[in-house]
Design goal:
Distance between the termini: 20 Å
Order of helices and strands: EEEHHEHEHEEH
Shape: globular
CATH topology: Glutaredoxin
Number of domains: 1
Radius of gyration: 14 Å
Strand order of the largest sheet: 5-4-3-6-7
CATH class: Alpha Beta
Length: about 160
Amino acid sequence: MPEVQVGDIAPEFALIGTGNQTYAVRGFVGSPVVLAFYPDDFSPVCTTQLRAYSASIDDFTSLGAVMLGISPQSLNSHESFAQRLGIVFPLLCDRDREVARQYGVLGPLGFYRRSVFVLDRQQRVVYRHVSRAGLTFRSSDELLQAVKMTIDDPDEGGSPPAG
């Protein structure tokens, strides 16, 4: 399946997430959305990444943006991970990896690639980064800059930082 590219309309999905809620990407039309695909709850890099994003959540929400974490673990794992680490944004369960397939972020053997997409208010992808190694992650500042560009550009057709 082809990878989602900058300029594409984000594929629709609905997944169960923390708080035992279902989150549908189309439910956030009108707000910028940051989709953070991560390989595994409790792994060292994922822990550091999601803590960093959680620490910056006020900056994202002040811009009207929604942050969603997505990985293939169970709801129980996500709830424990969020509670233990103080993650304050929803973590969604992609157990069958279908959403990862839709976005083109599955690596060898079906493992998640650490990836981030920023969607504008009309759900168009304005920023994309898919890691090949997964040992590092995109900073909150870089993602905030991409979100700001969706707000600063009246047509939301500007050129956010390359990802």
